[in-house]
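Re-running the complex after MR caught last week's input typo. The corrected sequence lines follow. Everything else is unchanged.
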Amino acid sequence: MKPDYSLYLVTDRMRMSTKALDKAVEQAVIGGCTMVQLREKEISSLDFYALALEIKKITDRYGIPLIINDRIDIAMAAGATGVHIGQKDIPADIARKMIGKDMLLGVSATSVEEAVNAAKAGADYLGVGAMFPTETKPDASHVSMEELGKIRRAVDIPIVVIGGISEENAMLFKTMGINGLAVVSAVIARPDIKRSAATLKSLFLGKGGCE
Amino acid sequence: MKPDYSLYLVTDRMRMSTKALDKAVEQAVIGGCTMVQLREKEISSLDFYALALEIKKITDRYGIPLIINDRIDIAMAAGATGVHIGQKDIPADIARKMIGKDMLLGVSATSVEEAVNAAKAGADYLGVGAMFPTETKPDASHVSMEELGKIRRAVDIPIVVIGGISEENAMLFKTMGINGLAVVSAVIARPDIKRSAATLKSLFLGKGGCE
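Corrected-run output:
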C-alpha cells in the first residue's frame, strides 16, 4: 500500500504545547496526520527505543506509518515502517542496503542535485526544505519555490515540503505536484493539536476537498 | 578466531594527547592494543560513519577487531567487527537479533545481575566497571573488586575491566581470570601512546609474560 504523505507529522518535544508526546501524536493523527516521524537528538538509545515502541502503539492503532529520524538502528529495533535521513546522516545508498526493500526510506534534500542523488540511492520519498524560516531549525538551508519546482520536475518520487509550513502557506503546494506537508510546530506547538492538523490538511488538499 | 581482549582501547577524542585520532589509534595498536572501540557521542551520523571507515582501515591493516560504541547502525554500515552497548542503549537481546551471530556483541555491566542478563541475551563479552574513579566518566557506577570477583564467577564469557585502569592497578586482574584491560586515558591521553600501551599490556600479562 502506498503511504499517504499529505500531512506528515515530525515530532519535536522541545516545541510541544503539552508534555505528553503520546497524547500529542494521537491528537495529531485524529486531526488528520497521515504519517509520524519521531525525531530525537538528545536522549539515550534506550530511551529513544522505548519511545519508538510507545509511539508505534499509536501509529499501529491508526494504521499509519512510523518513521524514525536518522537512527536506522532504532528504526529496525522498534519495527518502525521506515527511516528518514538527512544529508549529515548515514548515506542513503548504505541506509537502503541496511534496511532492505520493505522499509521506507526518506531523505532530506535542499537542491536538485541532492534530490536526484537521493532518488538514485533508493529513497522512497523526499523531504524538501526548509521552505520558510523556522524556529525548529534556524540554521537549515532555505529552498525557494523555484528550486522546489525544479526538484519536482527532476524526480518522480513523492515529495513532502518541510520548514515553516503553516496555515498561511499550506495551500501553495498541491498544485505544484507536492505530495504532502511535513509539519512540526504548526501542529504540536498549537494549543488545539487536532484542529490545527485538520485545518492544515484541508488547506493543503483544497477546501472541502479530499483525495 | 577468538578475539584477544588483553588490551582493549576505547577512544575518547576529548581526552587525547594528539588531535589525530587515526594516528593515536595506530600508535596504540603498535604498542600492543588488541581491539579498538570507537566511542563518539557528539558528532553527526555521517561523521561517525566516515570516522569508523577511517579507523577500520587501521584495524584491518593490523588484523584486529573494530567495535562501535552504542550505534548498531554505524557498526553495520561501516562493516565493523561488532558493537558495544551500555545499559542505556538498545537492549542486548534486540541488539543480538539485529547484528546476527557473526558480529561481536559487548555489553557493559556493573553488577552480577546485569552481567548474567547480558550473557543470557547473547553478549560475547562484558565490559565491567568503572573499577576506579575516572575523569572520562565521572558519574559512572563503581564496581568493587569483590563484585568483580562475583561477576567473574557468575558468567563464563570474557570480561574486560574498564574505568580508571592505569599502571598502578593493571597487574591486579589477570589472576582473577579477567581477560583484558579496557583503557581510555591511560593510553590515548599520554604523551607516548605506544609506550603506554606496551607498559600496560606487559603489566597486565605479568612481566615478560605472554599467553
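None of the earlier attempt is carried over here. The mean pLDDT of chain B is 93. The helical segments of chain B are 21-31, 45-62, 72-78, 92-99, 112-121, 145-154, 185-188, 193-205.
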